[in-house]
Predict the structure.
Amino acid sequence: MNISKGKKKNKEKLYSLLILLPSILLVGIFVYGFVGNTIWTSLTDWGEGAGLALNPIKNFVGLKNYKTLFFSFTQSGFRQDLVNTIFYTLLLLFGTLFLGLFLAIMLDRKVKKEGIYRTIFLYPMALSFIVSGTIWRWLLAPSGGVNQIPTWFGGKQNQFLWISSQKQILQFNWQNIWQVLGVIGLIFCVIVLLINIKREDKRKIIIWSCVSGIFALFAFVICPLIPPVLKSEEKHGLNLAIIGIIIAGVWQYSGYAMALYLAGLRGLSGSIKESAKLDGANEAVYYFKIAIPNLKPITLSAVVIMAHISLKMFDLIYAMAGADNGFTGHPSVRMYLTTFRANKFALGAAMAVILFFLAACFIIPYMVNSHRSRRPMR
Amino acid sequence: MNKVKVKKSFYYFWMIVLCIMFLTPVYMAIITSLKDPAEINLTTSWKWPTILNFNSYSKAFKLLKPNFINSVILAVSGTVISSFVGAINGYIFSKNKFKGSELIFTLLLFGMFIPYQIILIPLFQVLKTFGLYGSLTGLIFAHVVYGIPIVTMLFRNFYDQIPDSILESGRIDGAGYFSIFTRLMLPLSIPSFVVVGIWQFTQIWNEFLWGICLTKQSSNPITVGLSQLAGGQAVSWNIPMAGAILSALPVLAIYIFLGKYFIQGLLSGSVKE
């Protein structure tokens, strides 16, 4: 009896493996294999002189494509795209999370007809970026749409060019990129340090002051000694033209953040709210001191999801500004142009790899975390 | 008492302002699509049309019809195939765990998060090599393959909620590995088929990157068609707006009538119970 049961178990395991096999193979090849293939392509020249061939004999050239992207005169546009990516991600994150949290708190307070409001805040999610991009392009047209609103109140027509502005703020020189990165790191460390000083966590204070010291040393002592990475000065910064695209993105995705937060707020047990009320906490205190700190895991998933969406801004940028607009550029758009219009496959692959590693910064910690949280459940 | 009332009306005032802000783009799209091309003017862009002109819809539909048909074929077949793949995979990952299955599951999920640019070049090459480039079959295949992670996860999460005791009683009644799946699990998973179906349908319907990189004129999906309609600089805006509304209609209808399931799909995987 026992033996036959064991046999049955083995047989069932075999079935399971056989059924999973196609999925494992397909994902293995089309995800892992292809990622590896693109990384390899980015280290080659895609067959010198055979630029248009489909399966050329590729020659290994090391990091040449990456050097071109980061340091060559011809690719300054790509470097601006990278700077844009950072601002796209940060602004979209802050915009959607704040608006989403605000909407969730508004809806959490037992509104009448809550379903209607929720539907209205969430419907943009169902649309494609192409649809919303087409509509927002019209709304943000230079002398129409949103720019007309001040005239209703007797004001002058707004002149801001939402998608085509050529202004740039927060400029820095790419020659000093290491120093800029060092200063950003230093600012981040000092903020963490200040938080820990407030919490009076002695061990962490020591660690973070050391890290801050290293960053300060790097930025102000070592960096001035390294020769500039470019031969000539090259300014990059926050292009104001991306603001129009951010507005459309926030409009489309804050409903998502709202849905996540609302589920979280509803998940907090009623007793927490009750006991907070008994302790004399008013609504503001309840939300800021109790609810929001409890929503940390949701904020974490929302950050990952939104960062991920912002790296996929290709569609929205394409629909609103067109692929060739230099001011709203994004590595995903440039990758498309470089690969499929200019047929420079190896360089396009290098751009894709950079985009992939940017995404990996968010994905891998998130996946490790969720894998760990799944395991003890068994 | 009065103070509460003031507070409440203040609150509803803000809710209505927010709703108006969220609905503005739709208002704009509708009025622009109903205007006569001669009436479309940047300075009067907010005004309701003087004469309703439904011509733009028939014109836009005529232009987008082939793309619309392509997208229907793509989305329906992609959705049906991936739903079944997801159901059987989810059954194994939830109810037939074996050593290492948890790790395989996590490794599968990775495919959900990658930016698709990283696989675009080899995918393009492979589809070309097999003669599938520019065909709907190739695109359906891509959607099914890269849909495996998410559909597997959605079904697994759903099956995790079905108690093992139901399976046990099925086994006592003599049901085997496969009949448990077909007779017990499948009938129970209709709601999750709805969730997964809606999710995949919306994703495939709204997809653009592959549409533009991997198709030819004859197999362009609706998103590519719309972007071409709206792409020119000197367009009269009534037709792109009508096109945008037409191409949003199927997913919008799903969202309005089956919103509950849509939200469920959105939330599952990102919020843990």
Observations:
- The first helix of chain B runs from residue 2 to 34.
